Amino acid sequence: MSRIHVTGASGFIGRVMTARLREDGHEVTGSDLKDGPDVLPLDLRDRVAVVALMRELAPDVVVHGGAISGAMLATGDPALMFDVSISGTLNIAEAMRQSGLARLVFLSSNAVYADAATRDPVDEDAPVGAGDAYGASKLAAESILRAYAMTNGIATIALRISSVFGPRRDTPYLISQTLEAARARRPIEITDARSNMRQFVHVSDAARAICLAVAAVRSGFTPVNITGGTYLSEEQIVRTLLADFPSPAISVIVDPSRNDDGRVGPLDISRAAELLGYTPSVDIAAALAELAQPVVPPQR
Ligand SMILES: NC(=O)c1ccc[n+]([C@@H]2O[C@H](COP(=O)([O-])OP(=O)(O)OC[C@H]3O[C@@H](n4cnc5c(N)ncnc54)[C@H](O)[C@@H]3O)[C@@H](O)[C@H]2O)c1
After folding, report:
1. What is the distance of C-alpha 108 from the center of its chain?
2. What is the pTM assigned to this prediction?
3. Which of the two ends of the chain, N or C, has the fewest CB atoms closer than 10 A to its terminal CB?
């Protein structure tokens, strides 16, 4: 059993991973800007507060997930996204250094990868170079953590997680937007396969990967890809999601600004298997059908 501190504990992934870490027998504390059951109030941008909390709790492992999660949330205020991601991550690393804490699991993203000319599998050595504020903020956070790992001995596993889906995700995304449109009998707008292939991972698989990373002892800075093992167009996902729905109207648009899983090939997750023992376990079609359940109208 270890003492774990989770930032972003009131969030979609934070709630699931906190519960799962507790099931694994860990003593877990959580913090967030937003209220939640058993969640300590913390603004990651407040270094004095972050240092005080780390000193007080002295966790064996910090799981750092607090962030503005997703490129779609940066459009109105990219500076806020950079501020939370960069200052927040710097404050966590600095608080850990000052408190002598040595192990961190960071929730990074596959948004760090640069667009690729081919759709070959993408391993952790593939070129990085994000094209939006979200990916750039994660890449900057990774750079800070790499420096603290190399010079201050804070061993960091950065999980480069693809798009996460599942029940109770609050931030807007393809699956909830499709279900909302279907409920309202509105046409569904999706992006074309050339600009936007999707690599969804179920929140229970993402939480399991995080628990495995918490248990894995590594030195230095180790990026690890995490995905659900599928590589599908938005049209394939929407058609699976609404399989029982009477002919939804789907319009396919070309919108280079909507690039949710990067213009790259499928993430190679062999490092996750080798170092963490992670392989995806959720069947995406079954999980999508479960999410669609409430909007499927009764069959005549
Ligand atoms: N959801 C995905 O598809 C996905 C994919 C890859 C990586 N991630 C990363 O995983 C983490 C969790 O994502 P999520 O989907 O649960 O998002 P979420 O928005 O549900 O949770 C993020 C939490 O961070 C908190 N937060 C924001 N600003 C803060 C601040 N200044 N101080 C303290 N807390 C603050 C929010 O209140 C929220 O509860 C994020 O770092 C995200 O970038 C998410």
Report:
1. 6
2. 0.96
3. C
